[in-house]
Design goal:
Layout: H1 2-5, H2 18-21, H3 27-33, H4 45-48, H5 77-84, E1 91-94, E2 101-104, E3 127-131, E4 137-142, H6 145-148, E5 156-161, H7 167-180, H8 188-201, H9 216-224
């Protein structure tokens, strides 16, 4: 008893070397059995020393706030088209067999055809023409993805044309925005055609006047009267 407990190691403590009594676990076993708390960066440095073996750098107390809003991911338009060509919620299929046609409900699709050229979801530069609630049309274009790619609310540029504006001025403004500034000159005709169709549909429908009898029918009607 004296030889075991009387070696100056403290009362009640067994006489065993520290390397045997407190044998550390392997690093791999520690990382698998222990995970740091959720708010790791909120802990002061002296509390975070015990987590150094997990590979988290404890150099700074606060880490930068990295979110998806300030991280811009550059994805090729061809890759997006390969993904959404046959899998998209905007696809509408009509017809059977060889007469089957695929349309698209994308807001920035001028012809509503599901194609690489007219797709407003895939192309970095897209044009859309929509009808206003009080008449007239609105031209919608995409801004630069490099500047506004992480800001969806500011990604689109809209220009409204009232119903009182003449058709020539409306079409000229659309051509200037789409073609003359080298934005999407290949969509000039489609943009003007869609704006013209919307303006035509907004005209009030006039009642068809009753046809007047002519010739023999007119003489017969006059005799009866």
């Amino acid at each position: 008893m004296h030889g075991v407990w009387g070696l100056g190691l403290g009362r009640g403590k067994p006489w065993l070397p520290s390397r045997i009594a407190h044998k550390p676990k392997p690093l791999r076993q520690l990382t698998e059995s222990f995970t740091p708390p959720k708010h790791y960066n909120d802990h002061p440095p002296f509390r975070r020393r015990q987590y150094r073996f997990l590979g988290t750098p404890p150099t700074s107390h606060k880490s930068p706030n990295i979110t998806m809003s300030n991280v811009v991911v550059n994805v090729s338009s061809d890759l997006l088209w390969a993904i959404t060509r046959n899998n998209s919620s905007y696809i509408v299929k009509r017809g059977v067999g060889n007469e089957r046609v695929t349309f698209s409900k994308e807001p920035l699709n001028l012809t509503n055809k599901h194609s690489r050229k007219h797709s407003g979801l895939v192309n970095e530069k897209a044009v859309g023409v929509q009808a206003n609630e009080n008449g007239g049309v609105t031209l919608i274009t995409k801004k630069s993805h490099e500047k506004y790619g992480s800001k969806p609310a500011s990604l689109y540029d809209t220009t409204a044309f009232s119903k009182n504006k003449s058709q020539r001025k409306t079409y000229a403004a659309i051509v200037n925005r789409v073609a003359k500034k080298h934005y999407r000159p290949d969509l000039r005709q489609e943009a003007v055609a869609r704006a013209s169709a919307i303006k035509r549909s907004q005209r009030p429908v006039k009642a068809t006047p009753a046809s007047k009898p002519r010739g023999v029918k007119a003489k017969a009607a006059a005799e009866k009267a």
